[in-house]
Write a structure and sequence with these properties.
The chain has 164 residues and is mainly alpha-helical. The chain is built from three helices and no strands. Helix 1 runs antiparallel to helix 2 and helix 2 packs antiparallel against helix 3. The longest helix has 59 residues. It is rod-shaped. The N and C termini lie far apart (96 Å). The relative contact order is 0.12.
Length: 164
């Protein structure tokens, strides 16, 4: 009798370990996404702060700023607004990815624990999660490109002022 209970206990531990192994890899993605979301949120906050600075600069210097400078600041606002929209979408996609990974982990856990066949659901949610992660990373790279373009324009403006 004791051997039978020991065998059941061993099988329970093996089942538990199997469940833990199956859910560990997707769980690591959540940690990576948390780090990426913090970077994205920081970039978003910086874009908002920069927008407020430019608006304040335009309001304070509405009578004294040359039209050329006003146009440059307005153009910067347009670029920052575009970046902010992209950053918002990027963060939404990364958040959706976390949600889908959690659904994947839940499906794997429940499927293994109760012997349900949720492989199709789990693999579908995981593939969707990877798709949203890829989309988010593409937008992240585009944000870097756009921000560098904005810096290039600012540098050109400074160079023009120095030459004049």
């Amino acid at each position: 009798m004791a051997i039978l209970e020991l065998t059941r206990s061993f099988n329970d531990i093996r089942s538990f370990l199997e469940i833990m192994q199956a859910t560990t890899a997707p769980a690591m993605i959540i940690s990576a996404l948390a780090f990426l979301l913090s970077i994205m949120a920081s970039r978003y906050a910086r874009a908002i702060d920069r927008t407020r600075e430019i608006i304040d600069q335009l309001e304070r210097g509405s009578d004294t700023l040359p039209n050329k400078k006003k146009r440059s600041l307005h153009y910067q606002l347009k670029i920052i607004y575009k970046r902010s929209r992209q950053l918002r979408t990027m963060m939404a996609m990364a958040s959706l990815c976390v949600f889908l990974v959690v659904l994947t982990i839940g499906a794997v856990f429940i499927g293994l624990l109760y012997g349900l066949h949720l492989e199709t659901f789990a693999s579908s949610t995981f593939l969707l999660a990877l798709g949203t992660l890829i989309g988010s990373m593409v937008l992240f790279v585009l944000d870097i490109v756009i921000s560098l373009y904005g810096i290039k324009i600012e540098i050109q403006e400074v160079e023009k002022e120095l030459v004049s």
